[in-house]
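Annotated sample (chain length 291).
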Amino acid sequence: MYGSFGGSRVASHRDLPAGMVNHLFTNTGSSSFTEFVGSYAPELLPGRDDRLATPVGDQIPHATTIVAATCAGGVVMAGDRRATSGNIIAQREIEKVFRTDDHSCMGIAGAASTGIEMARLYRVELEHYEKMEGRTLSVAGKANRLATMIRGNLAMAMQGLVVVPLFAAYDPEIDGGRIFSYDVGGGPYEQFHHHAIGSGSIFARGALKKLYREGASPEDTVLTLIQALYDAADDDSATGGPDVTRRIWPVVAVVTADGFRRLSDDEVAGYVQAVVDARMTNPDGPVAPLR
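Output written by the structure step:
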């Protein structure tokens, strides 16, 4: 705390003469006690002590790991189903991968409620543009529109409500998929071949580097992404692995020239079962061949 005395700054009111202390505390310039305490001892107000206060972002469920990879004729995106609030599992069946238009999708990591709202608003944004202009945005245009929305959330991000999406789309100009990542200030940053975001991304990226094959079929790429999510869940407590007992599977979407398609639970269950069966004999997963 600082007071003003004789035009100089002093470290504390305890350093002031008693008469000056009484003068300062009886002539606060405001009839509000809260303002008075906020001026002289802000740490005494509720939520103002940095040592005791919990950032609001830490109290809100967070979505975690999203993975994406290009495949022959398109791109595949997958996300686990767990949301956490601190060390608590807040939701076991949250959906983090969303269709944004007929040929694109996005996954969210960060504050779950804000991310879901952003995904819904972004979908309406693309639909509105198409209705108003009579055409769809280019893939780069879609990525830039999402970057603008993320920048618009910067004030909330500074308060802990951070949302970091992953965007993927089919691009007819290259007859293939493209992937874009972001930071809290926007972006976008194009990622080639594959990428992962969220708390388990470091482990998922390691698996993708090991297992990804350029030009693989969508089916093989789906299997690669599920392997990557399994590795992420194996080492990151915030990432949920496949829940066989509750039959909760990752959300998997494939985007090609034929459009966006979310795989059914039965389809994903088949891929998951193949991964789980293989892990029974090899818990660390498949080994990439040396070249």
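Annotation: The helical segments are 18-26, 33-40, 112-133, 139-152, 154-158, 201-211, 218-235, 265-281.
Annotation: The longest strand covers residues 163-171.
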